[in-house]
Description:
Blueprint: H1 2-39, E1 53-59, E2 63-64, E3 68-69, H2 71-85, E4 89-95, H3 105-114, E5 123-126, H4 132-141, E6 147-152, H5 154-166, E7 170-175, H6 187-203
Parallel strand pairs: 1-4, 1-6, 4-5, 6-7
Antiparallel strand pairs: 2-3
Helix pairs in contact: 1-6, 4-5, 5-6
Amino acid sequence: xxxxxxxxxxxxxxxxxxxxxxxxxxxxxxxxxxxxxxxxxxxxxxxxxxxxxxxxxxxxxxxxxxxxxxxxxxxxxxxxxxxxxxxxxxxxxxxxxxxxxxxxxxxxxxxxxxxxxxxxxxxxxxxxxxxxxxxxxxxxxxxxxxxxxxxxxxxxxxxxxxxxxxxxxxxxxxxxxxxxxxxxxxxxxxxxxxxxxxxxxxxxxxxxxxxxxxxxxxx
Length: 219
């Protein structure tokens, strides 16, 4: 009987310790996420008030059936087009994942903007933008970007701004979904992604492809 009570007390102590550790970890994640979210929050501006920059960095967001930009990606590209045609930027850097031969994301992005009046001379493609972090680091190290407007949806923009500014780009952000109702659909994913971004920036992690392309261009 006494041994049973001792076992139960030990189990309660372990449970309390696990609860404390779990609570501490949750608070740590929340604090790190909030730091990333608010670090460059003041650099999110409306399209009309965006400062001039040499280039708009547009992050990939997948393709729809038929190899055309997904609705989320098309929204980003439309916002970048508005910046280009409005004279806010001189060129577009389209960063996407071309690591799969059947998923030519940057080609679809480039075709989309060319069909809408952007000349070849104003379009650059980063075919190894496998993530927000990789796209931002490569924008600076491979394409020499020092100042840029970042174009993505509002839920993603604070993380993109944190990474880009932390790796040496003087970056401002324009929300592709400007004026649309806020959605909490991506809240949990972004919370965890912000923490990951913080760790990668602090560790100065290299992108998966430090130079060159994710795969050779088609011949």
